[in-house]
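To: structure subgroup
Subject: Chain for Friday's discussion

All,

I'm putting the inputs and outputs inline so they're searchable in the archive.
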Amino acid sequence: MTEKTATKSWPWHVVVPVAEIPPSGLHREIEAGEAERQAIAALAGLRELPRLSASFDLYPTSGDQVIVTGQVLGTVGQTCVVTLEPLLNEVDEPVDVTFASDTGEAPVLPQDGEEDEDAVAEDDPPEPIVNGAIDLGTLATEFLMLGLDPYPRKAGAVFEPVVTPADPEDHPFAALAKLKAPDSASKPKKSNDK
């Protein structure tokens, strides 16, 4: 998600300063307004975005890290890839992300052949805490986009391929084949003279 955050300008911001998160944790319910939903719909290539909300729990841990868990819920207007009809889909995307203080330094990775015995193997590095805060609006927007169906299909819509005709005369290129085929009447006759 760091790559996406760096390359996109997100339209929805709900900033929570890390200093305001108590040791027992913090719960936030957020809902995007009409302007934010329109901007997100345009960014995501949706026809419409009638609903976008999220529920987050933020827990500080040792090492200046914050674990954010929760759920992103949305109703998205898309277009069926089979019938091209408009349809509404529901997005229900779970969130489980670790944020860490952004020191501005790149993490030190072991060189080829070396292994850091103290390093904990993780799938993804922590997301950065930028300017001492976590933006829940941006996080919700990213997870909404992750939950979108890239090939939305209306219920019961079935793609039926075009069937080629069985009769060679009905083939679209049959007329061209007739033009190309030599006509017996126009062929010059071979002479048997030696």
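Points worth raising on Friday:
Strands lie at 15-17, 26-31, 48-61, 65-79, 86-101, 127-129, 133-135.
The two ends are 85 Å apart (CA to CA).

D.
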